[in-house]
Structures are given as C-alpha cells and as structure tokens.
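Input sequence (156 aa), recorded before submission:
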Amino acid sequence: MCKPLAVMWAGRGGVKEVEVLDLGKIVVGLLVVLVAVFIFVPGVRQSFTRVLSNSETVVVPPRPDGGAQSAQSQSNQGEVVEQELEIITLLGYDAIPAIVAPDFLSAGEAQLQYSPDEQVLGLSINGDNRAYSIPMLSRHEIVNDEVGGVPVAVTW
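Predicted structure, token format:
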C-alpha cells in the first residue's frame, strides 16, 4: 500500500500534518490519461504504429501508352509522372497462424452450431466435400488441408 505524502502545516491551531498526494493514485491517474490519449488521439496511435511496423517504398512508373493509372499523378504540364507509394506492414511474417489438418462437423452438427446464413467457402474434390466458415477464415486467413486426397491451401 502506498503511503500518502504528508507535509507539516503551521496554522492558528498549531502544527498539523496534512495529506497532500497519494503516489499510487497519481500513477494510476497518469496511466489512465496515457491510455485515453493512445485510444482517442489518432495521431499518437499512428505514430506508435509507424515506429513498430516495417515499411517499404514502391515506385509506380508511368504506363508506356501514356494512360493515367490510379496510383499515378499528373504534373502541371499534363504529363503522367511516376509516384512513390509507401507500404506499411503491421504484422510480422507468419504472425497469423494457419489452421493445419482442421476438424470438421457433420452436416447435422453444423446445422445446430451455425446459423443458416453463415457464409462458407465450399470445396469438392473427388467426392470429398468441405465447407470452410468465412468468419473463421477471416481470423486465420489460411487452412492447410487435404481434400479428396489432394493437398490444398484454402485462403480468404
């Protein structure tokens, strides 16, 4: 338990000890303020993301036919010029784990567990039929599986 910082105060009634600061409350208050700034001030969050992420600059050359692309800009003279684009990587290499050799439900179990409008990716190879839940794929992005004796990578 943090002991409050106390000071002696001399007044009409004599010398009194007055509690001024509780160090624990100050630390907690500062942490709350820092978290609030990080969450609610976009510039702070973006700066933090840029420090912790990798980036790469890609140069998009003009098209040979002179046509404008969305990644290019035009100069004052009307000519199409190359443009530099910065690609920022937020997650490291292999940061999202793949699902390897997944377990599947029977059709009856799937009807009980999933809603009728659940979106799935369907795959049928050599009479072996599979349905991969899109919400599940959104979290893992890739499933390494074997369907109908053929190794497959199901991605979303």
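Checked by second reader. The chain has three domains: 5-50, 55-89, 99-155.
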